[in-house]
Design goal:
It contains eight helices and 20 strands. With 333 residues, the chain is an alpha+beta fold.
Length: 333
């Protein structure tokens, strides 16, 4: 049976900083400062383990960990950059979502193949803990894993929210792990040509978190076999070397789509809409359609790093895009 910790009031506050509430609320008949109330909620939630969700994929045991969540204003400044802002707001409203706010979640994944314990992406890391993020290590402990249990770390790409947890106190967070990453991705972010550009900050993080691990890293390209049952696919656009990974065990399939789609409505129902974080926006849109046409056509599951926790679901074709169907008990039977 899957393990999914109760949601309750803590779920969102356990992963965000103060300022989530836009108005005061009444507690015990007294008007409470909203920032202080949100901070109190976060403090309470941080005393609890982060959300995890477990299920089986054939002979693989999969554990999704909620590393954090980040509420933000003005979704129109992140999604649908090539659309009138009113159209973005209208689509959100049609899907029962706020027109002026959205939440981004972060979901690293552990896959126990029976021979290896594989971690896909490493979350935000220590730098996000003051804001309630960077909870991967806590999630691993809640799931019964120690950092030294991880035998292989696989990176979909090298944005900070995927590589932030590679290091802990200046040392490898997973001391016994080997690593797999895309060659094109590594070459791009390591290159000194990133200096003095908007990509410089991420370049510096790659230098500090990824380069020290290069001797233990296998750099791969499209179609590479990571392990039996895990195959890499190049899916560029979000970044120059973004990769996704297809898992197969005992006839069951799951695609780790990374950041191919970043929002379950705005990116899937409208795959042509531009996303601020996609570096090549036209290529990213083409890749979204190619990848999710495949997933929809084969009727297989996918795990999207920023999908609503536990980040797993299915898609079916709907007009020019796709309808997201979150997982329920399909993997339990």
């Amino acid at each position: 049976m899957p393990l999914s910790l109760p949601m309750k009031r803590r779920t969102l506050f356990g992963t965000v900083g103060a300022g989530l509430l836009a108005a005061p609320f009444v507690s015990n008949g007294l008007l409470t400062n909203p920032a202080a109330a949100a901070a109190d909620e976060k403090d309470k939630a941080m005393s609890l383990p982060p959300d995890i969700n477990r299920f089986k994929l054939g002979g693989f045991k999969v554990t999704v960990i909620k590393d954090g969540a980040r509420p933000s204003d003005k979704p129109q400044e992140t999604y649908g950059l090539n659309q009138p802002p009113g159209d973005v707001a209208a689509l959100l409203k049609e899907n029962f979502l706020p027109e002026d706010r959205f939440v981004n979640t972060f979901s690293p994944v552990v896959v126990d193949t029976g021979k290896e314990i594989v971690l896909f992406d490493t979350g935000l890391g220590a730098g996000a803990r003051a804001q309630g993020g960077g909870r991967l290590l806590e999630g691993l402990a809640a799931a019964g894993y120690k950092p030294e249990d991880i035998s292989l770390v696989v990176l979909t790409h090298m944005h900070g929210d995927h590589i932030g947890g590679l290091m802990e106190d200046g040392k490898p967070a997973f001391p016994k792990a080997r690593y797999v990453a895309g060659q094109a991705e590594y070459d791009f972010w390591k290159d000194k040509a990133r200096e003095g550009t908007p990509a410089e900050g991420n370049h510096k993080m790659v230098l500090s978190n990824v380069v020290p691990l290069a001797e233990k890293t296998t750099f791969i390209g499209d179609g590479a076999t990571v392990l039996p049952g895990i195959t890499a696919m190049l899916a560029v656009g979000h970044t120059p070397g973004h990769m996704i990974f297809r898992l197969e065990s005992e006839g069951r399939h799951l695609v780790m789509t990374g950041d191919t789609a970043n929002h379950y409505v705005l990116s899937l129902q409208r795959p042509d809409w531009e996303v601020r974080f996609d570096m090549d926006k036209a290529q990213a849109a083409a890749t979204r359609k190619r990848v999710f046409d495949m997933i929809a056509g084969e009727k297989i599951a996918f795990l999207g790093y920023h999908m609503p926790f536990p980040a797993v679901g299915f898609v079916e074709k709907m007009g020019a895009g796709y309808r997201f169907v979150p997982k329920t008990y399909q993997f339990d039977l």
